[in-house]
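Exercise (ungraded).
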Amino acid sequence: MTVADMKEMEERMIADLPWLSPIGALALGAIVCVVLAIVLPRGRQGLVGAWAAGAHLAAAGLAAATWLDRGFRVTMEGIFVVDGLALVLTGLVGISGALCIALARPSLAGTDREGEFYAVLTAASLAAAVLGAAADAALLAIALGLSSIASFVMTGYLRGAPRSNEASLKYYVYGTVAGATMVYGLSWWFGLAGSTDLRVVGEALRDAPDAAVIASTVLVVAGLAYQASLVPFHFWAPDAYDGAPLPVAAYLSVLSKLAALVALARVLALALPDGTAGWPTAIALIAAATMTLGNLAALPQRNVVRLLAYSSIAQSGYLLMGVAALEGSDQGLPALVYYAIAYAATNLAAFAVVLAVARERRSVDLDAFRGLGRSHPWWTAVLVLSFLSLLGLPPLAGFVGKLEVFRAAIDADQAWLAVVAVVNTVISLYYYLRVIAPAVLDPLPPGPAPRALRGASLPIAIALLGAATVAIGVGAEPLLDLADSSTMLMRGG
Amino acid sequence: MPLLTLAVTIPIAAAVLAAALPARLERAPQRIALAASFLALACLLATWARFDPDRGMQLVEEATWIPSLDVAWRLGVDGMALALSAMSAVLFVASAIYGVGPRPLTRAAAALILLLEGATLAFFLAQDFFLFYVAFDVSLVAMYFLIALWGGEQRRYAALKFFLYTLIGSLPVLLGIIALFLASEPQTFDMIRLAEEEPFAGTGVGASLVFLAFLVGFAIKTPIVPFHTWLPAAHVEAPTTGSVLLAGVLLKLGTYGLVRVNLQMLPDAFAKYALPVALLGLLSVLYGALLALAQSDLKRLVAYTSVNHMGYVVIGVAAAAATGISSKARELAVDGAVLQMVAHGLVTGALFFVAGFIQTRARTRDLGRLGGLFGPMPVYGTATALAFFASLGLPGLAQFPAELQIFLGTFEVYPAIAALAAVGIVITAGLFLLALQRAFLGETPERWRGLPDLGTRELLALVPLLVLVVALGVYPRLVLDVISSGTWLLGGG
């Protein structure tokens, strides 16, 4: 490469920078968080949270502006792809990240590393946004690594609690192994293609021996499947969610999961074009196993956080139906995008109410939800709406989401998967009702009323998320349009 | 003017208004409920005037909602929708006049009754499955709260049973709707198109499963034996108005669905299963009548006669679906079934009012303890006798022409079932006469001598129903001319 070429490349990359502004906002947000956390006195650490939330919202706003003003583009010599899929994910990360900060703030206020927590959370969001845009094996590995490290730290935030430590350690050990497995798989791809660019890998894998393609793909998928808690890499999720602070569980179950699924969709589409090695069927089988095992394991749970953990594993299965349909149908990607939006609002709403109950009643057992309708009608309304949305009843967000993935599966000749999903929906009624019924139907247990919670951020977050759960379903059209135009850029441009 | 849309939206808007009123306006909720229910009835009567009985589905009001899924705000009427929605509107006016229990309506009660009215009218008028299903579920929620908040001593148990049964019953309906949507080409929630195109024509496995899903859901709602066990508990514990609306309006949701979906959209599958369904109807007729015979609680007695009377509807619908029935007999059976729904709504509404009136006076509904009520309460006694005679199917009163038509229609394909079902009439005639004798005739015991006769509010609620019962009995063509199932049964507009 001559000096002139270098110069030209540099200019091209500088011209690309505006497309990376959402990711830049998160990166800048994380760095400033660290500085603020050091500079500000302990009583003012809430400002760090406000800054971090602001950075998240700025990222979401910049993603929207990029979409509207600049359009889609493959940037940085093909490393970062800024397309509809990436921008929607960035927007989701921005909005739900800010909401997670609002959820976390009441529990964190006054604890010793509050500011640092926000910094780590923002770093995790940065990793999630990069995961959604990465079209290069090296960048993918770095983003997954950053995401994992940030998640371990957040999971173990409650230093004094043995369960939090155990959860963090478990997550760390398994996560490191899974991450290393993926990097190993990516190294095979590099060996086969001579490049880390996933498009080049895609060209090379067409002609590579089947055994090598399948083996390396399994290794790569393992890392992302771990992050997205897909069967058989799901077992960490209930322990981690249960041990971690609840807002972190909410964060992991929504942002980390969706980022990993988007990355999985992109990796498969770029590196294994035209369904190389039959991956659509393999992914469909994983989807069926994930939703089935998640739902069956959720049935006996009495701990509502673990129940939600298994429920979110099952939801990964439904989301994965969109990925499985990517090759066979042009409805696969819109279904994935819409379901991701619906799931983010719904699952965060569910976690927000569970968090509020856990803070007030100091328990997340099913019994802690008895009589909630009498003491907190609005929480109960959001709880019921979010659980029914996870179940998939009209007119809530989850219904349209399920309909979209069912359509995609049938259009991609995977009708059997839609049937499995329908059966799973029926199974899931049982455990969603197990939480709803005592909350709505039971009288308040006797005993002194728990002290009321202070602070406005949690009630506001609950109200917003409840409203979103309904609005995304009733007003599905604009979001369906958005999902339809959330294309994935396949080749350079 | 979009009369149908107004009929649905006025009660719902009034419900919001009533709930938002300041508490010191004590009479306002009742007035709002009265005004809104009268307006809704007026809208439907104006529709009745514009209605052309020679055409099927007509006066369709359509507004786009979610075009990507072909979900739209579609309301329209054919004979069945118009007759049932008008009957419901009448019962809601009567309920608004009477209030919940003996008191005038509170804010919450007015809001719930109006919400229930909006939901049930939307259900009968909906020509879009999305709206249809949402209305189905909202009516369930509103009725749950009516029972749970104003019911008798065992109200929690009764409300729970009602809630669980009907929610679990609504899930198969939803799955059936999703299946119809996915199978249609291009995919749509438009019920008019689905009735015309019949995506599940034939008797394959898919058609059978979809048929059974709808059948189970609607059978629970109707209720058909053996899915009836929630009904007596709900009725006995519900407040008077709750019972009136539950029996008068909500039970029709089940049989309406049976005609609208199973008969119109899945005729081939229904033909295959017509005999078993007719036998279930016969079982409901006989078992309901025998159980009613064994009751001494007036509400329980009326509740079980509802099982019996809805059984005739099921038999009529099943006979209409059978292969080999002539079109004349089919129209006779369906016209009779729809007329029976209307007549039963009015008669049972009157019966539950009657039961409620004695409950508030004597604090008992036990026929063994009551006696000689004609003496102190001649007006009440006359009204009750009229309602009893109507319910046992006396000629000249509303249920006689309905049941006669059902028998005539059924006789052509299932003569044995028609003959056995007639036994049910004999049993109900016996039990009503027995009840009349025990509670009203003979010497008036000392403790009942001072009972006051009906007041103005009670008369205003009850008399219009009885007038309609007589009018329908003397001149059934009043409604039959509108129903004219021949114009809509086979789809088309």
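Further reading is listed at the end of the chapter. For now, observe: The longest helix of chain A spans residues 162-193. The two ends of chain A are 21 Å apart (CA to CA).
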